[in-house]
Q: What sequence folds into this?
């Protein structure tokens, strides 16, 4: 087979890249290890920056997003039983975020791709990347029992943190930056109305809690837990008891308990690989970086990378210029590091760290007090939360 751009991975990053390339008339083939149903079964984040919504709009993919997505003009920070509303719209000159699940974004992208007759190889086994240091890279895999070779001009590694693309790069060519946090998030998805119309990020001496949602009838709740937490120790009743203890009394009183549709533990990690280009291979999305979920940046960063990479390839094919592909890595990393900083800051502010000394605990309290007192501090938080410009 032959294509211009071989995209590894059909997560949001690979699918957005595929859609943007199609818009530029660039031929791309997506190669995905799992089935479409499996990809859609993963429960992931749910807060879209305005820039992300803009990209989906430009692709004509905003129909369901506009009808079913929830506009959020603010959220609450809870700290030691005090509550502070971050008025995003007021602090950023009218910007807001949209609550719409990554699963739904993925669904819309997959449907549009299928409707446009664009090809995705699902359930591709043993994907391998070859010769990307040369001008004739290719990808091999097994699909429907057949060995395939896909010749291409470029390979886009959009295959997530555990994918094959970054693992194919010689270790000496890659610099890695990492922080693993000593805790995880225990998440529950449940068909009950959210306890508050806006998200609540709550810091508590028992640990962090987050009240989020997917719709007006579906809630998503998280509790800070041990990284190796045993799920079987968390029947629903215990989860809701613990959640209520970590929230302010008013929010706690509005938590409706219901049978969990999904319950899982996610580790928290900050990670960046540099650079993001190796000859004719580019890394994008979770393949290149991970943020802890506290600032809701993971999905938005993945879409941002896809946007930069699509623009770079557009310049290459449509304008005959190498400038975009030469600058992709630096351009994307600049924005990635700022989102890393914000996610690390928000994680550090709101979680309980067992190794913190009383001094560090007081620093968290002082930081929260400063946010309460200073509009300038709240603006810094708000402009990062709604997303830095693309
Ligand atoms: N070959 C082919 N496909 C692969 C391989 C492989 N060896 N390894 C992984 N994949 C696929 C995965 O099955 C997955 O569908 O690559 C896809 C990567 O998708 P995501 O993990 O969703 O990553 P990305 O598209 O970058 O989106 C990042 O997902 O994890 C969240 O918080 C994160 O919201 C962010 C978003
Ligand atoms: C979610 O709804 O899953 C969610 C929302 C906000 C976050 C992280 C996750 O910061």
A:
């Amino acid at each position: 087979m032959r294509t211009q751009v071989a995209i590894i991975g059909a997560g949001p990053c690979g699918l957005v890249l595929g859609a943007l390339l199609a818009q530029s008339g660039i031929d791309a083939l997506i190669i995905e290890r799992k089935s479409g149903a499996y990809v859609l079964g993963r429960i992931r984040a749910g807060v879209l920056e305005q820039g992300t919504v803009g990209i989906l709009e430009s692709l004509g993919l905003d129909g369901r997003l506009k009808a079913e997505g929830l506009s959020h003009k603010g959220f609450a920070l809870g700290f030691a039983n005090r509550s502070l509303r971050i008025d995003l719209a007021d602090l950023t000159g009218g910007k807001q975020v949209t609550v719409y699940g990554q699963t739904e974004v993925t669904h819309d992208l997959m449907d549009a791709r299928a409707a446009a007759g664009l090809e995705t190889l699902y359930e591709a086994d043993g994907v391998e990347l070859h010769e990307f240091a040369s001008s004739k890279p290719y990808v091999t895999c097994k699909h429907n029992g057949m060995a395939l070779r896909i010749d291409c001009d470029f390979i886009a590694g959009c295959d997530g943190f555990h994918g094959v693309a970054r693992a194919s790069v010689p270790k000496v060519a890659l610099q890695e930056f990492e922080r693993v946090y000593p805790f995880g998030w225990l998440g529950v998805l449940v068909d009950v109305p959210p306890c508050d119309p806006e998200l609540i990020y709550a810091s508590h001496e028992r640990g962090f809690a987050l009240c989020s949602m997917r719709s007006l009838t579906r809630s998503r709740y998280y509790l800070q837990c041990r990284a190796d937490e045993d799920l079987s120790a968390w029947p629903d009743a215990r989860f809701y008891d613990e959640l209520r203890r970590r929230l302010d009394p008013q929010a706690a009183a509005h938590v409706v308990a219901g049978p969990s549709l999904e319950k899982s533990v996610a580790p928290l990690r900050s990670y960046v690989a540099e650079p993001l280009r190796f000859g004719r291979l580019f890394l994008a999305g979770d393949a290149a970086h991970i943020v802890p979920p506290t600032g809701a940046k993971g999905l938005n960063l993945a879409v941002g990378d896809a946007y930069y990479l699509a623009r770079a390839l557009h310049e290459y094919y449509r304008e005959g210029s190498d400038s975009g592909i030469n600058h992709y890595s630096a351009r994307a990393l600049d924005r990635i590091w700022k989102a890393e900083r914000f996610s690390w800051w928000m994680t550090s502010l709101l979680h309980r760290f067992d190794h913190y000394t009383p001094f560090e605990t007081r620093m968290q309290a002082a930081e929260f007090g400063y946010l309460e007192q200073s509009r300038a501090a709240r603006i810094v938080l708000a402009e990062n939360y709604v997303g830095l410009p693309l």
Notes: Residues 323-350 form the longest helix (28 residues). The chain has a mean pLDDT of 97. Residues 8-14, 31-34, 39, 44-45, 102, 124, 127, 158-160, 163-164, 285-286, 298-299, 302 surround adenosine-5-diphosphoribose (ligand 1) (CB under 6 Å).
